[in-house]
Amino acid sequence: MQSHANSARLFAEALRVIPGGVNSPVRAFKSVGGDPLFMQRGEGPYIFDVDGNRYIDHVMSWGPLIFGHAPPQILAAITEAAARGTSFGASTEAEVRLAQKIVAAVPSVEKVRLVSSGTEAVMSAVRVARGFTRRDKIIKFEGNYHGHSDGFLAKAGSGLTTFDLPDSAGVPKNLTLDTLTLPYNDAEAFRDAMRAHPREIACVMLEAVAGNMGVVTPRADFLHALRELTTADGTLLLFDEVITGFRLAYGGAQELLGVTPDLTALGKIIGGGLPLAAYGGRADIMDTVAPVGPVYQAGTLSGNPLAVAAGLAQLTLLEQHKDTLYTKMHCQMHALAQSTKEAAARAGVPIRINRVGSMMTVFFTESKVTDFTTAKTADAARYGAYFRALLERGVYIAPSQFEALFLSMAHTDDILAETAAAIAEALHVVA
Ligand code: KE4
């Protein structure tokens, strides 16, 4: 039986000085029950909590660790950079080299600006879209998460062409009045909204493959409608690839899906596990950003030398292995999904699995999950029991039904066989 005594002790201390005892809400385990674990170290596919319990990690820091925890090449790059200082607030060669790699890899990106978080990347990209088009309104999709910028914490208004209401306290109503939230994968609703607001929409933003309602793949007709109608209307198409960038393909979801947006937000993997994100796109659009153009965006630690060193090392490794790495993880995830489906059938537990490349979600529902409404039919309580049963068997998955399970290059076939066996047992526990 695992002890979590040290996690419990630290959680009690944390509660006195940090809201909810955590620095990001999902870490609080609220939707899966129980108290949060405090982690001490990671090693390859494993993460160890402060009580010495070892878990096969499928959260992978929510996506950045595509080579697993503490890969030697990335640690060496960070250590070498740190010996020269941690931050200059001035330009460095490494930032140029990282920007060059991103431009060479991502189809939509001709110029890129480095920032420190996914929220900052998406927020800045939307500001650029508004500055470039001189329009205020934006369209986003239910179940997509783009960080915690005020205008994105919005929920669909009453009708599909009425603008949004705040979805968080502290967000003034007028800041969501220019945001219109539509159902994901609904080409018709999108067409209606564009027809209702001709030449008013600055940008349409989405997770090209959704990860924040659990994994949901876009329908081809939906993506085609977005690309076609935004082009016709002079609206910019923004892919939020904070999760999918460099995860689904070296060129991201846009390479995999064959749809090129006007702007892209990146994060997670490009920082190699350190705070670094980016937004980029067509040169004429990006040249609206200060100091070239009138759209202001800045950051003390933008392009931080340690984060850039980690990101550059990670992208260098990805580039070296890109011809085999993505196929390998895709096949591994296919096998894990297959064994999970078979185990669920044997246990008599209704599940739906959505999977793209090295990210997948097991939904505890009988409904096909194609948008946020169908995702919400999942039995969150059953997911919580599944999460705890896996934890007891040494497997750590996302503490929320509406996230993704990730693989990394550190997850060998033997490790994944252990995950599959634990999943089979956990499914019997929740049957
Ligand atoms: P950050 O500001 O958390 O770096 O990135 C925001 C963001 C933007 N866009 C997408 C598609 C994202 O997934 C995220 C952040 N992802 C969540 C989990 N899916 C981060 C975990 C957390 O909030 O603690």
Describe the structure.
The protein has 431 residues and is of the alpha/beta class. The protein folds into two domains: 5-70 and 322-430, Alpha-Beta Complex (Aspartate Aminotransferase, domain 1); 72-317, Aspartate Aminotransferase, domain 2 (3-Layer(aba) Sandwich). The protein is 38% helix and 15% strand. It contains twelve helices and 16 strands. The protein has helices spanning 5-17, 72-82, 93-105, 118-133, 187-196, 220-233, 252-257, 283-286, 305-347, 372-375, 380-392, 413-430, and strands at residues 39-43, 46-49, 54-57, 111-115, 137-141, 154-155, 165-166, 179-182, 201-206, 236-241, 263-266, 277-281, 352-356, 359-363, 395-396, 405-406. The protein has a seven-stranded mixed beta sheet, with helices on both faces. A hairpin with a 2-residue loop joins β1 and β2 (46-49). α2 packs antiparallel against α9 (305-347) and α9 (305-347) packs across α12 (413-430). The protein starts with a helix and ends with a helix. The mean pLDDT is 96. Bound molecules: ligand KE4. Ligand KE4 binds at residues 24, 26, 62, 117-119, 122, 145-147, 207, 211-212, 240, 242-243, 267, 277, 403.
